[in-house]
C-alpha cells in the first residue's frame, strides 16, 4: 500500500506544478504589472485543455499502457520546461502563455493515465480514502512548490534557473515511473484485454455515443455531475479574489506569496490529509454535511474583512487566519469530493473507468475554471463587497444541495456502503 501511495503522490505532485505556476505566480506577477482583474481572470483560458481531456480519455483507455502514457507526458513536461528556460517573461509574454498552455495539455493527459491507474490500484474504503488523500495532497504540494516556493525565490534565482529546476524534477519522475514496479501487473492485464479491445470495445470507439450512454448510465452519475460542477463555485471566487484584495490594500507580493502561497496552502494540505483519516472512521455523508456548513460560516467571516481598507497588523492577522481556515476546509472538501467521484467510477465497467473518471474530473475543472474566469469581471463591475455576497450565496446553496443529498439523494449512507471491499 505504501508503494501505491508514494507512486500516486509523486505523480500528482508534478501534475500540480502547472496549476501552481498559473494560479499563484502568474496573477501576482500580472497584478504587479498593472493588469486589471478582468484580464487576469481571462488567463484561466490557459486551463482549457483540462476541459477537453474527456475527448481523448478513450484513447488513453484503449491505446498502450498507463506506464507508456505517464512516461511520455512527464518527459514532454520536462522538455517544455527546458525550452521555457530560454524565455524572458517581460519580453515574451506570449511565449510564457504558450508554455503554460503546453504544460496544461500534457498534465491533462497525464491526469487521465494516473487516474485510471489509481482506479485500478485502490481497493476498498480504506485504500480509497488514503489514495485520494495522496492525490489531493500531492497535487497541492506541487502547487505550493510552484506557486508559493518559486514565487518567493524567483526574484533571486531568476526565471531561467526556476525552469531548469523544474526540468530536472520532471526528468527524475519520468525515470522513476519507467522503472517503478507498481504498474508491473498492468502489462499482464493489458495483454489479456487486447482481444476485447479489438472487438466490442473497438466498435464503441467507432461509435462514441455508446460510450457516453454507458457513462451516464453508471449509478450515481447524474447527481455527481451536478455536484462537481457547482460545489466549488462560491469558494473558488473567494479564493481567487481575496488575495488580490489583500495585494491592493494590505500586503506586498512577497508577503502574499508566503502567506497565501505557502502557509494557507499548507493548511489546505492538512485539510486534505485529515479527510483521508476521517473517511476511515466516519461516513462520507455525515462529514460532507458538517464541512459544507463550516465553509459557509468561514466565508461569512472573510466577507466581513472586506470592509477594512486601512492596513494594520490586526487586519493582516485576520486575513491570514481567514485564508488558512478557508484553505483547510477547501482541502478537506476536495478529498471528500474526489473520493465520491472515484466511488462512483468504480461502479462502471472496467473498460470505461478511466474515461468515466476523466469525465467527472473534467466537469469538476470546468465548474471551477468558468467561475474563476468570470470572478474578476464580477469584482470589477460590482466591487469586492457585492461580489463576495454573491460568492457566499453560491456557497450556501451548495451546502443545502449536499445536505439534502445525504438524506434523500446520492449520498445516502446505505448507497455508499455498496463499495467493494
UniProtKB/TrEMBL annotation:
It is found in: Membrane. Its main location: membrane. One of its GO terms (cellular component) is membrane. Keywords: Membrane, Transmembrane, Transmembrane helix, Transport. It is a multi-pass membrane protein. The chain crosses the membrane at residues 40-57, 69-88, 159-179, 215-234, 258-280, 292-309, 321-342, 354-374, 386-411. InterPro entries: AmpG_permease/AT-1, MFS, MFS_trans_sf. GO terms for molecular function: transmembrane transporter activity. SUPFAM superfamilies: MFS general substrate transporter. The keyword Transport applies. Pfam families: MFS_1. PANTHER family: MAJOR FACILITATOR SUPERFAMILY DOMAIN-CONTAINING PROTEIN 3, SOLUTE CARRIER FAMILY 33 ACETYL-COA TRANSPORTER -RELATED. Belongs to the major facilitator superfamily. This is Major facilitator superfamily domain-containing protein 3. It comes from Seriola lalandi dorsalis.
Amino acid at each position: 500500500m505504501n508503494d501505491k501511495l508514494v507512486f500516486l503522490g509523486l505523480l500528482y505532485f508534478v501534475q500540480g506544478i502547472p496549476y501552481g505556476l498559473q494560479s499563484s505566480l502568474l496573477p501576482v506577477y500580472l497584478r504587479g504589472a498593472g493588469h486589471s482583474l478582468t484580464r487576469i481572470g481571462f488567463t484561466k483560458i490557459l486551463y482549457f485543455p483540462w476541459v477537453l481531456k474527456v475527448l481523448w480519455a478513450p484513447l488513453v483507455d484503449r491505446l498502450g499502457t498507463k506506464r507508456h502514457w505517464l512516461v511520455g507526458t512527464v518527459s514532454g513536461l520536462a522538455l517544455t520546461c527546458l525550452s521555457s528556460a530560454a524565455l524572458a517573461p517581460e519580453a515574451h509574454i506570449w511565449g510564457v502563455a504558450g508554455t503554460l498552455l503546453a504544460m496544461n495539455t500534457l498534465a491533462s493527459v497525464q491526469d487521465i493515465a494516473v487516474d485510471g491507474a489509481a482506479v485500478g490500484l485502490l481497493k476498498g474504503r480504506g485504500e480509497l480514502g488514503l489514495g485520494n488523500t495522496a492525490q489531493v495532497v500531492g497535487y497541492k504540494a506541487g502547487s505550493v512548490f510552484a506557486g508559493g516556493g518559486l514565487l518567493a525565490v524567483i526574484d533571486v534565482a531568476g526565471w531561467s534557473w526556476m525552469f531548469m529546476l523544474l526540468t530536472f524534477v520532471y526528468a527524475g519522475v519520468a525515470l522513476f515511473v519507467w522503472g517503478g514496479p507498481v504498474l508491473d501487473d498492468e502489462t499482464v492485464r493489458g495483454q489479456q484485454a487486447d482481444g476485447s479491445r479489438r472487438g466490442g470495445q473497438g466498435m464503441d470507439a467507432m461509435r462514441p455515443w455508446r460510450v457516453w450512454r454507458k457513462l451516464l448510465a453508471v449509478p450515481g452519475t447524474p447527481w455527481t455531475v451536478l455536484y462537481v460542477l457547482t460545489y466549488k463555485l462560491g469558494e473558488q471566487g473567494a479564493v481567487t479574489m481575496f488575495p488580490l484584495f489583500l495585494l491592493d490594500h494590505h500586503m506586498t507580493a512577497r508577503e502574499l506569496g508566503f502567506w497565501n502561497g505557502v502557509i494557507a496552502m499548507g493548511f489546505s494540505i492538512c485539510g486534505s490529509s485529515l479527510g483521508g483519516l476521517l473517511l476511515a472512521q466516519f461516513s462520507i455523508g455525515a462529514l460532507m454535511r458538517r464541512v459544507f456548513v463550516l465553509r459557509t460560516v468561514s466565508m461569512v467571516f472573510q466577507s466581513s474583512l472586506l470592509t477594512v481598507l486601512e492596513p494594520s497588523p490586526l487586519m493582516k492577522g485576520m486575513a491570514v487566519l481567514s485564508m488558512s481556515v478557508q484553505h483547510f476546509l477547501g482541502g478537506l472538501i476536495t478529498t471528500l469530493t474526489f473520493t465520491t467521484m472515484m466511488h462512483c467510477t468504480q461502479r462502471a465497467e472496467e473498460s470505461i473507468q478511466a474515461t468515466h473518471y476523466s469525465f467527472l474530473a473534467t466537469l469538476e475543472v470546468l465548474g471551477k475554471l468558468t467561475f474563476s474566469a468570470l470572478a474578476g469581471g464580477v469584482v470589477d463591475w460590482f466591487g469586492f463587497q457585492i461580489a463576495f455576497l454573491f460568492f457566499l450565496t453560491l456557497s450556501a446553496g451548495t451546502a443545502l444541495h449536499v445536505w439534502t443529498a445525504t438524506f434523500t439523494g446520492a449520498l445516502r449512507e446505505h448507497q455508499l456502503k455498496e463499495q467493494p471491499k
